[in-house]
Amino acid sequence: MTNPPPATGSNAPSQSSPDRDRRFEREALPYLDDVYRFALSLTRDESDADDLVQDTFLRAWRSWHTFVPGSECRRWLFTICRNSFLRSRERDRGHLSLEDGNVEALAAIVIHAGAMREGVDGLLARIDLAPAIDAALRKLTEPFRSAVVLVDLEDQSYEAASEILGVPIGTVRSRLFRGRRMLQEMLFEYAKDAGFAGTADRSPFRENPDA
Amino acid sequence: MPETPAMIDCATAMRQLFDYLDDELTPAREAEVRQHLAVCAQCYPHFAFEQTFLAALATARSDRDQPPPERVRTRVVAALREAGFAPG
Prior knowledge:
By secondary structure, chain A is mostly helical. Chain A is built from ten helices and no strands.
């Protein structure tokens, strides 16, 4: 052990390079598996994920002096990964005209009410959904995909997802709920295609669950 | 003595259903939703369904917990070293 960390715990560029690099190796590189899984979820392509992970760690290493010691390194790396992904796609981040979590939450209930009427809501308990969920996740588009991946697959809180995505919590909530609803619609379609519909009742969805 | 949760209607409960399942509500709001679900036969099936759906998604998460190919780590470390990374 040489070069103990300074009393301030700073990562400032003035710190000697080998020590800074050792801290990066010790604190950031162990999250390579998590970053790879997140990158693969975003890109849905192994080759693109490889590129994204490399870009993420190069950017993280160059920006290591901005990492606050003691804060959550995994979250910091996810933020860089997400930003790199957006940069690579040159994606417009603000094209949604409506982002209301309450509306999305109720919409999911309406979809489920319709599924109950069609007799497909019980499918989750009856069949192996893993292949269908995997296929649905692959089809899910941005920006809903990132919200679902972060909260439902990476087990991040709304607050953490908000920080990583750089959007307000209300926006995370809206995107997450809409993403879940889209997944559920795809799963119901999968069930119907697979012949799991229990009845011939094709009543339209109820407009209001309170009705 | 703890306060009795306020009674809320179905729409209010369902608007907060995902927040409830995600443990994102304050204790007071969580108690309101929990009480509503305990007594409302119309909302409970939605709760049960969404809970099952999120559990299925969590299973998809565990299925993905496989390490990346070794080539990824090798490539990342090589790129870092080429850029000047030298932990010694």
